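A reminder from the course coordinator: this example appears on the midterm review sheet, so study it carefully.

Given structure:
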């Protein structure tokens, strides 16, 4: 069985009454200064804050990149971050809660109940079934659950708690549940499945740099109809009727802190086929996670440093100047800044640290173009060269007046692209999943390095489809059909 490893922000957060387990600080784990990080570890993340881009968030993010099994996962953190997300999974839980209220308190009139759940355990035996089901849905060390009578009983709030906020009796229950938990196997909850034959494409007609232009969207609709799939263009206003479809294709720029993630989450919870799936969004939208994932699997990349406030002063010695700083969840060249000297490094890093506890720094590699390999279901779909914007070091220049300026492009057949580029892209994308990805790479001589893996790559009319033409869109729609029929078989 994998060894449990507890991570705390402050050594004082681990009490003497807790079980004798291996405990390390968040700083040491994030910095990689822990022995045997390559082992099969069960990480229990007891950071005080699980919010997006916090220290607790990064602990779980890097744990997943390192191949460790972690509780809570990044996905659980995101699922608990908004009621609009976690209520997708509470319908069956509320049914159990209503039954339990009737059994536990048949003669008492109450309008609110608070439950504390420790690793799926409740101190009140009557609530144990609900506690276990809640833990299966939201695997978090400590959960505070509020039930409110709103005509009928409903779950009004689910909140992740830190052990330091517990009173003495609760601390004892936490310690007992933890002792039991570390002796169990970690099993994944089963997901529901339900499928039909309609495809929704989520898009935003007003997005400045959408992943697919109007011409490409029209070709997707036409290709889908040729395969017997009714394709509808939907917008964020159609969230409430998403379950009418059997598949969702997200053609908006995705982000975790965005409604595109909520669409992906809801589609999955409804048993729909979805690209981009929630896990791909989580894995691809954070550059720190991708950097650690590529490192763990020895995928070639630029020299890269995960930067905290403590080690930013060492960047000049490690990377030299110029160097590139990246905010973790930027897209389309946003949040990517070149620092030419120590003064610029200090200014930019201070700005980035206002939004994230960790940022990314990489060696500067100028090339005339970047490679992108589009990959669908672990197979290459298209290959493009994207050239740098005029008099600029990036493909998209956001600093120009008016609309952002982009460089040119050149599209290749898979057979004519350099084999090393295609092979490296496949290795990187396969670490993320089996969806639709765009792997960005740079090439200097024989050196090919991965810059990032995009979960929502551009597919525009007359660009990525220049070689395959309509066959590219047929391949996309055929993949949705394959997945739907595979689930129904």
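Designed residues:
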């Amino acid at each position: 069985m994998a060894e449990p490893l507890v991570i705390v922000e402050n050594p004082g957060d681990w009490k003497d009454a807790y079980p004798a387990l291996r405990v390390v600080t968040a700083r040491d784990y994030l910095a990689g200064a822990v022995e045997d990080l390559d082992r099969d570890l069960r990480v229990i993340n007891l950071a005080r804050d699980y919010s997006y881009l916090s220290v607790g968030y990064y602990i779980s993010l890097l744990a997943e990149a390192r191949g460790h099994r972690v509780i809570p996962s990044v996905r659980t953190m995101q699922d608990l971050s908004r009621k609009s997300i976690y209520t997708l999974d509470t319908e069956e839980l509320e049914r159990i809660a209503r039954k339990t209220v009737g059994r536990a308190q048949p003669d008492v009139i109450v309008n609110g109940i608070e439950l504390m759940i420790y690793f799926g355990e409740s101190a009140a035996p009557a609530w144990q079934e609900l506690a276990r089901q809640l833990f299966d849905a939201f695997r978090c060390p400590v959960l505070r659950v509020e039930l409110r009578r709103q005509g009928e009983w409903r779950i009004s709030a689910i909140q992740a708690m830190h052990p330091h906020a517990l009173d003495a009796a609760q601390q004892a229950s936490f310690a007992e549940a933890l002792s039991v938990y570390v002796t169990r196997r970690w099993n994944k909850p089963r997901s529901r499945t339900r499928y039909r034959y309609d495809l929704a494409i989520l898009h935003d007609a007003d997005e400045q740099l959408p992943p697919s232009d109007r011409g490409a969207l029209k070709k997707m609709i036409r290709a889908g109809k040729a395969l017997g799939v009714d394709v509808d263009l939907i917008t964020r206003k159609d969230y409430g009727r998403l379950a009418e479809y059997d598949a969702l294709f997200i053609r908006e720029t995705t982000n975790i802190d965005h409604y595109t993630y909520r669409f992906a989450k809801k589609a999955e919870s409804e048993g729909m086929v979805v690209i981009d799936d929630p896990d791909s969004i989580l894995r691809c939208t954070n550059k720190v996670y991708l950097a650690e994932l590529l490192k763990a699997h020895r995928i070639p990349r630029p020299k890269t440093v995960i930067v905290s406030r403590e080690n930013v002063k060492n960047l000049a010695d490690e990377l030299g100047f110029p160097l590139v700083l990246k905010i973790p969840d930027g897209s389309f060249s946003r949040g990517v800044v070149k620092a030419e000297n120590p003064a610029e490094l200090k200014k930019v890093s201070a700005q980035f640290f206002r939004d994230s506890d960790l940022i990314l720094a990489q060696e500067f590699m100028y090339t005339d173009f970047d490679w992108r390999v589009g990959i669908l279901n672990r197979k290459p779909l298209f290959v493009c060269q994207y050239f740098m914007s005029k008099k600029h070091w990036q493909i998209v220049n956001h600093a120009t007046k008016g609309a952002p300026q982009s460089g040119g492009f050149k599209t290749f057949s898979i057979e004519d692209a350099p084999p090393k580029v295609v092979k490296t892209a496949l290795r990187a994308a396969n670490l993320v999943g089996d969806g639709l990805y765009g792997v960005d790479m740079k090439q200097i001589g024989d050196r090919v390095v991965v810059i990032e893996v995009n979960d929502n790559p551009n597919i525009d009319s007359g660009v990525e489809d220049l070689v395959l033409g309509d066959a590219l869109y047929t391949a996309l729609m055929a993949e949705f059909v394959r997945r739907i029929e595979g689930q129904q078989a």
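Confidence is low (pLDDT under 50) at residues 190-195. DSSP finds 15 helices and 23 strands in the chain.
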